[in-house]
């Protein structure tokens, strides 16, 4: 049994309760050239133990969504609308102590650049031991034993050697496995992964993704994974959200999103990835909109081949299509 599985308890009373809920989340960043609106009404639910992926182009709001969950705003940034709830309680109302505890022991984060995410001055052992003691049990002996075991779970053949190393002595793939170990050491109920395999070669990417999925699942934790790469997301996520211009424009079970998406952007993304034909990925014609504007109408309409008159006149309707499949588009379900 992987170490740390005792840290998360999901019983029949809590398994159906929403772990994390974002509704209508808006973020505004005040810059010297004016306000920027990277999130314009994000809706997203994550349930205990499930894996959710968010896909979108650069600038679609994926990373800012993760930041809003942790209330980690960039300079000049603020959550200006909507609600972020953890087990039904507002994250926006947490005081400093509650926020610190929430960020470590409830929700942990794996960052995009694995080597720079680690402290260059501390050995792998010191970093895992400190994370474990800060969030789980304040005993050096237990923490050191845990550090060895969690590295074994992450397929390090000789954990004692790795524990003595410093970040600059690790390859990118090794450093990302250490980051996963650090996130697991906190015993969280939810792990946020921000493009965790960017920059790794394909074989290492697959290995890291499979390990991440397996170890998170073995601990009954939930995973919210973001990436621009639909292939990577579909490898680990049971439910997939498609992000565009600061909104989740379609969300649903992996099979539906991959085989029969309803939103024109989701369809274009799928076609460009050429997942079925295996050809080289293409780009979607047109440009991602500037987030200096607030969109009352569909932000994809300048790139959409299905655009209708109503798209230029009416705000986006929300269609709930069952099985948590949700769509923001005037086309509605069932179109060709
Ligand atoms: Fe296209 Fe209209 Fe749907 Fe926007 S709302 S994606 S313009 S069909």
Commentary on this structure:
The chain is α/β, with parallel strands linked by helices and 336 residues long. It is 32% helix and 23% strand. Strands 6-7-8-3-9-10-12-11 form an eight-stranded mixed β-sheet, sandwiched between helices. Helix 4 (124-135) packs across helix 5 and helix 4 runs parallel beside helix 7. The radius of gyration is 20 Å and the shape is globular. The protein starts with 19 loop residues before the first strand and ends in an 8-residue tail after the last strand. The model is unreliable at 5-13 (pLDDT under 50). Bound molecules: iron/sulfur cluster (SF4). Iron/sulfur cluster binds at residues 264, 298, 300-301, 304, 306-308, 311, 329-331.
Key terms for this structure?
12 strands, alpha/beta, binds iron/sulfur cluster, 336 residues
Question: How would you sum up this structure in a few lines?
Answer:
The protein has 336 residues and is an alpha/beta fold. The chain is built from eleven helices and twelve strands.
Question: What is bound: which ligands?
Answer: iron/sulfur cluster
Task: Output the structural class.
Answer: alpha/beta
The percent range for strand residues is: 15-25%
Q: Would you identify the regions where 5 or more consecutive residues have pLDDT less than 50?
A: 5-13
Biggest beta sheet summary: 8 strands, mixed
């Amino acid at each position: 049994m992987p170490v740390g599985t005792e840290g998360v308890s999901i019983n029949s009373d809590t398994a159906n309760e929403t772990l994390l809920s974002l509704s209508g989340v808006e973020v505004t960043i005040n810059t010297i050239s004016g306000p920027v609106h990277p999130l314009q009404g994000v809706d997203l639910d994550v349930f205990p133990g499930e894996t959710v992926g968010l896909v979108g182009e650069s600038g679609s709001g994926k990373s800012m969504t993760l930041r809003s969950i942790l209330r980690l705003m960039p300079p000049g940034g603020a959550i200006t609308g909507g609600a972020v709830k953890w087990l039904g309680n507002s994250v926006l109302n947490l005081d400093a102590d509650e926020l610190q505890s929430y960020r470590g022991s409830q929700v942990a984060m794996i960052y995009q650049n694995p080597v720079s995410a680690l402290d260059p001055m501390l050995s792998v052992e010191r970093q895992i031991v400190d994370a474990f003691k800060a969030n789980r049990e304040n005993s050096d002996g237990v923490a050191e034993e845990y550090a060895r075991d969690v590295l074994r779970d992450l397929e390090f053949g000789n954990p004692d050697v790795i524990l003595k190393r410093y970040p600059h002595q690790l390859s990118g793939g090794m450093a990302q496995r250490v980051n996963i170990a650090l996130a697991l050491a906190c015993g969280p109920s939810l792990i946020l992964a921000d493009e965790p395999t960017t920059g790794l070669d394909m074989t290492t990417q697959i290995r890291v993704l499979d390990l991440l999925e397996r170890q998170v699942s073995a601990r009954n934790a939930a995973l919210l994974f973001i990436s621009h790469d639909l292939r990577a997301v579909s490898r680990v996520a049971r439910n997939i959200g498609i992000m565009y211009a600061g909104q989740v424009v379609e969300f649903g079970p992996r099979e539906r999103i991959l085989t029969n998406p309803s939103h024109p952007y989701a369809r274009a993304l799928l076609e460009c990835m050429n997942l079925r034909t295996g050809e080289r990925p293409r780009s979607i014609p047109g440009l991602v909109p500037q987030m200096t504007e607030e969109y009352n109408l569909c932000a994809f309409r300048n790139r959409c081949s299905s655009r209708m008159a109503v798209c230029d006149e009416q705000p986006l309707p929300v269609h709930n299509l069952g099985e948590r499949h949700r769509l923001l588009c005037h086309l509605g379900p069932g179109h060709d």
